[in-house]
Amino acid sequence: MLTKRIIPCLDVKGGQTVKGINFSNLRNAGDPVELAALYANQGADELVFLDISATQEVRKTMSKWVKDVARQINIPFTVGGGIAAVHDVAALLEAGADKVSINSAAVRNPNLINELANHFGSQCIVLAIDARKIHNTWVVHTHGGKNPTDKRLFSWAKEGQERGAGEILFTSMDHDGTKNGFALDPLEKLHHLLTIPVIASGGAGTMGHFADVFALAKADGALAASVFHFGEISIPELKIFLQNHQIPVRL
User: CB under 8 Å to 45, separation ≥6 — which residues?
Assistant: First the structure.
């Protein structure tokens, strides 16, 4: 059985790691390079590094951050923010990233998924989907969750898989930063709908929430930020807790 992945997320704005609630009210959480090294040493399975203002500010992710982080870690590393073309991905992979995360640009131009998958391979293309439940429908949002679109979570995830995405990273905007638990129902539906890995994001507050997202929603990985950044949950203790609940993890 494949082990479940614990994935700290570093949302970076202005050179600092930040974290908010429901995609707003951001507060400083520390230096991203130092946090990356800490999490790698603690046993994180992967890291996700998101330049959260890159798309809104119409610029590219800073390759220097990627190089600085990559020098500090020996675990897989996903980078996202402002990626819209083959040359963007090439620069990030050259800087040390293992995978890239695309979101707003893929919604705007779905063929981008095909193009990147064909050029670099599906294994390094992550389709990130930010969605909020509106009138009982999961509506996809772009530009850091600011712009609702005409796309819906399940059909967009399926299309992303068909176009060549190697993973889906689903963030529930309703759960983000609330620490009330992950969005289990849509995550379980994604698990049954797709054949590629699904990474859960948004809502982690306790170790039990991680157990639930793996055991009940069948997520392949769980991404969290503030519970790690502010020392509320330690990765080694979390992994022992999960192992004690018969959830396979890499110790």
Answer: 3, 5, 6, 7, 75, 76, 221, 250
